[in-house]
Write a structure and sequence with these properties.
The complex is a heterodimer of chains A (114) and B (116).
Chain A: E1 5-7, E2 10-14, E3 19-24, E4 30-38, E5 45-50, E6 56-59, E7 62-67, E8 72-77, E9 86-94, E10 102-104, E11 108-113
Chain B: E1 5-7, E2 10-13, E3 19-24, E4 31-38, E5 42-50, E6 53-56, E7 65-71, E8 74-79, E9 88-95, H1 97-102, E10 106-107, E11 111-115
Parallel strand pairs in B: 2-11
Antiparallel strand pairs in B: 1-3, 3-8, 4-5, 4-9, 5-6, 7-8, 9-10, 9-11
Classes of the chains: A mainly beta (114), B mainly beta (116).
Chain lengths: 114, 116
């Protein structure tokens, strides 16, 4: 059974704090690593898709890095704002003919207090 | 582009009744996925289709669950008979292979199912 692990499960920070969370995954047959942002009562929205070892992606105050050899990705949020409050999901795509399928972690729930 | 369209948004049904959830993927997407979200297990894949063909249904909990994709623009997930433990939010998502490497999935708004 493949496991995509995310830590921490939840995180409470003050507005203006910078924060980061981790996604760990089996490194064999790696195809792609996705990060999604999931606000309450909405559907997940794709933030980043990374495919190469050493990839770094950035969107505003949010950035992500990827290490496919050791099987982890970090998501960073600089200067957290209340509107960043959401659950952040990572998802692993693997090869072996199942490139279209993603395995999701359980997410890190971020709460930013004003 | 209207996105992935799911219906109904909410469904409340009695135990033992048949429930049908519907999904219209984005035109041109060749992958369609059904996920179930629960507090205990997070977002778990039930089944996915490629070019209307079921590829992996190993996540379907039991024979009470079935899914079809009769054409590229429509899919159903059916639960018969429904049980209270089936209560969850069911998401449909679509993609095409290049997007898996570039942009990711597009999710529908989900169907919140409550079985009483």
């Amino acid at each position: 059974i493949l496991n995509v692990e995310q830590s921490p499960q939840s995180l409470h920070v003050q507005e203006g704090d910078s924060t980061n969370f981790t996604c760990s995954f089996p490194s064999s047959n790696f195809y792609a690593l996705h990060w999604y942002r999931w606000e309450t009562a909405k559907s997940p929205e794709a933030l980043f898709v990374m495919t190469l070892n050493g990839d770094e992606k950035k969107k505003g105050r949010i950035s992500a890095t990827l290490n496919t050899k050791e099987g982890y990705s970090y998501l960073y949020i600089k200067g957290s704002q209340p509107e960043d409050s959401a659950t952040y999901l990572c998802a692993l795509g693997r090869g072996e003919g199942s490139q279209g399928n993603l395995i999701f972690g359980k997410g890190t729930k971020l709460s930013v207090k004003p | 582009d209207a996105g992935v369209i799911q219906s109904p948004r909410h469904e409340v049904t009695e135990m033992g009744q048949e429930v049908t959830l519907r999904c219209k993927p984005i035109s041109g997407h060749d992958y369609l996925f059904w996920y179930r979200q629960t507090m205990m297990r997070g977002l778990e894949l039930l089944i996915y289709f490629n070019n209307n063909v079921p590829i992996d249904d190993s996540g379907m909990p039991e024979d009470r669950f079935s899914a079809k994709m009769p054409n590229a623009s429509f899919s159903t997930l059916k639960i018969q008979p429904s049980e209270p433990r089936d209560s969850a939010v069911y998401f449909c998502a679509s993609s095409y292979l290049d997007r898996v490497k570039s942009y990711g999935y597009t999710f529908g708004s989900g169907t919140r199912l409550t079985v009483v």
